[in-house]
Structures are given as C-alpha cells and as structure tokens.
Design goal:
Blueprint: H1 4-25, E1 28-30, E2 40-44, H2 51-58, E3 63-68, H3 75-84, E4 88-90, H4 97-108, E5 112-116, H5 134-141, E6 144-151, H6 153-156, E7 169-177, H7 179-183, H8 187-198, H9 202-208, E8 239-241, E9 244-246, E10 252-255, E11 261-262, H10 271-288, E12 293-305, E13 311-322, E14 325-328, E15 331-333, E16 339-344, E17 348-352, E18 358-363, H11 370-383
Parallel strand pairs: 1-7, 2-5, 2-6, 3-4, 3-5
Antiparallel strand pairs: 6-7, 8-9, 9-10, 10-11, 12-13, 12-18, 13-14, 14-15, 16-17, 17-18
C-alpha cells in the first residue's frame, strides 16, 4: 500500500507523543488490547472528538481510521491527512458503499482498521444503534474483530456542549472474535454482538458510580439536545448559559457537574429522561399533524456538497419539516425523497435526495438539528 511505512512511522510517533498528555487531560486509564494474528478490525463506541486518539493509545499496532467526510472539505487539510494518515472517508447524508469496500480491501492487504460503528454520537448519554451494514462488512473482510469500550466520554465532552469537562475516562477491550467464529454468524448476529459489547449508558453508570466532571459553562449549548420545554411545550425556547438552563415560561434548572439536572419545577433529573419525553411528545405531534411544518428555524443556509468535497450555496431562508417534506428557503423535498439524514457535530444537518445529490444545512444561530433528525426518522417510519 502506497505510503504504508510513512503512515506507520507517524502513527507510532503520535502515539508516543500524545499518550501522556491525553491520559492526564482526560484522567484516562486504558487496558492493553491483546495481540491477535492477522488483520483486525477494532470497533468502539463513540462520544468525544478525541476517541480516535484514545483508542490509538489503547491499541499499539498501526490502524487506519474511518473518518467523517467533512474533515476532507479543506483541500490543504485533505492533502495532509491523506499523505500522513490516509484515513478512510465515510460520507454522511447518503449511502456510501465505497467506505465498506475500502475497509475490506485494506484488511485483506493485512492492515488493521478502527471503526466507530454507531456512525453517530449520543446527545443524551446512551450508545446509538450500530450501522446496519457493519456486520456484513465485518463478515466479508475475513479479519478478526475486537470490540472496545470507552467509558466516561459522554460527560467529558457532551455532544451538545461547547466545553470539555475533567472527570475520568476508561478504555478497555471487551472481546476478541476470530475469523472462524465470525464466518458462521449472520450479519445481523454480528451487529447484535457489537451493540451488546460497546453499549454504554452514561447515566446508568453515573448512578452506580458517581464521578464529578468539572469544567466551565457546563450548560452552554444544551439547546442542541433539548428542543422542547417540559413546562410550556414550546420548541426551541430552552437555552443554557454557564450552568443554568432556562426558558421564557419560567423554567429554571441547574446542570450539575455529575450531569444531573436540578430544578424546582423540572420533572427530569437527567438529559436521558428529558430526551425520551421530548421524543414521545414529538411523536404525538406527528400523529396529530395533517399538514404544514411541525417547527421551523430562520436564517438557515443550504449547501450543495459536490463529489470533490467542495460546497456551494443552494438556498437560504427558513428551514422546516413536516408531512409535506423538508424545506429551506425555495428548496423543497418530499420526505420520501430525503435519504441518509444525519448530523455533523452539534447541529449541522446533512442529507441526500433521491438522485444522490448531497446537502448540508448550517445555521447562523444555535438551533437543534436533533429535532429535525428525530422528526425525519418518525415520518419515514410512519410511511413504512
């Protein structure tokens, strides 16, 4: 493989350079991964933007990482990444069989691969579902599989937040599966094994072993995860500042350094419970809806993502979603034609249309992309 030796040298150097400071910064403890013969795919859960580094600290052999396509948008960064690390690009907002093909090719050439199989990070603390195509790819590769769990990531770097918190993180291998074991399993069985092994419920763990995660501006950005007020039932009125959560209706709560919520009129103690309530409330609104937008946000920009990763403005204006479809300014797309709806980072929406064109929605103000993601999933589910 072109540049393989260069990639191994840099991986080894970065692992040596970053291990000590990352362990200190995140109070990170790791258990060594057992050696296996032949190529291996290492599958881990995903909560922080630093998980690739933390996984690399726990895995001494060189790995190629599967990385989100948006990091390749800037040409200078793309060239550096490809030259020094050559990660495998994974597109969001559309079907991407080329990612699985690249992974299988590298595994069959003897390289190891690191994959965060959820393809997403949790907003409320529970591990997201494993991508349905993962089991088939693992089986087709003929490689070994190691499942690896990271604990403490959600409270260290909540997906919705602007700041890091210092508490405790841990990483360790859960199980090793040989090619022989995997060969007799159906892809769906492999998916279930992965989901079981990497499953992490942050709030359940905090309930069993409470750890403070200290930092500044603990509630800032919480509106990315909490899009419905439990008192007035209004969309996009909850905001976070410092460690305080408020709504214009009088809702007031404090985000504690344990990740718990405290407020006299607040019916929830965790973001997990709040998230479950707002999902059910949204489902009820969808069932009762006969047309028109469920909610909307102003000052949104729709970008068309071209195959070479560059973007151009396709529309600007108010973003909305409902039974009639997804709209942004003059752009309209029926729900049945919206595919691969996902979220980058805290609140950037990506999706593709029925023709395979890919789009990204960015906001001038902080607004929840999660409410669009969950509404889209429910509307598609309703249509079967």
């Amino acid at each position: 493989m072109q540049g393989y030796r260069r990639h191994v040298r840099l991986y080894t150097f970065l692992r040596w350079l970053l291990s000590a400071p990352m362990k200190w910064l995140f109070c990170f403890q790791t258990t060594p991964v057992p050696a296996v013969e032949g190529p291996c795919i290492v599958i881990a859960n995903h909560n922080t933007d630093f998980d690739s580094i933390l996984l690399g600290i726990g895995y001494p052999r060189h790995m190629y990482f599967v990385a989100s396509e948006h990091i390749f948008r800037k040409e200078w960064l793309r060239k550096l990444l490809i030259y020094f690390l050559d990660p495998i690009a994974k597109r969001k907002g559309g079907v991407d069989a080329s990612t699985a093909l690249q992974m299988v090719r590298r595994l069959r050439k003897g390289s190891d691969i690191a994959l965060f199989a959820e393809g997403n990070k949790s907003f409320h603390g529970a591990t997201c579902p494993v991508h349905p195509a993962t089991g088939a790819m693992v089986k087709a590769s003929g490689a070994s599989m190691i499942t690896y769990k990271l604990e403490g990531g959600y409270f260290t770097s909540p997906r919705w937040a602007h700041t890091l918190r210092r508490g405790r993180m841990k990483g360790y291998p859960v199980a090793v599966y040989s090619p022989q074991t995997l060969s007799v399993l159906a892809p769906q069985e492999i998916n279930r094994i992965i989901q079981r092994d990497i499953d992490e419920d942050a709030y359940q763990r905090q309930g069993e072993h409470p750890i403070p995660f200290r930092g500044k501006r603990l509630a800032e950005g919480i509106q990315n995860a909490l899009y419905l007020c439990p008192l007035c039932h209004a969309f996009s009125t909850v905001t976070g500042k410092d460690d305080q959560i408020t709504c214009g209706c009088g809702l007031a709560a404090t985000y504690l350094n344990t990740g718990l919520l405290r407020g006299a009129r607040l019916p929830f103690q965790t973001l997990e419970a709040w998230g479950q309530w707002q999902r059910e409330r949204l489902r009820g609104l969808i069932l009762a809806s006969t047309g028109g937008p469920l909610f909307q946000d102003r000052e949104q920009t729709l970008l068309h993502i071209h195959p070479d990763h560059h973007t151009e403005v396709a529309a600007q204006g108010t973003l909305s979603i409902g039974r009639d479809g997804l709209a942004c300014g003059d752009f309209r797309l029926p729900i049945v034609e919206v595919e691969g709806f996902e979220i980058y980072g805290r609140n950037t929406i990506v999706f593709s249309d029925g023709k395979g064109d890919r789009y990204q929605v960015v906001s001038q103000t902080e607004r929840s992309a999660l409410k669009y993601f969950e509404a889209y999933a429910m509307l598609r589910e309703e249509r079967g």
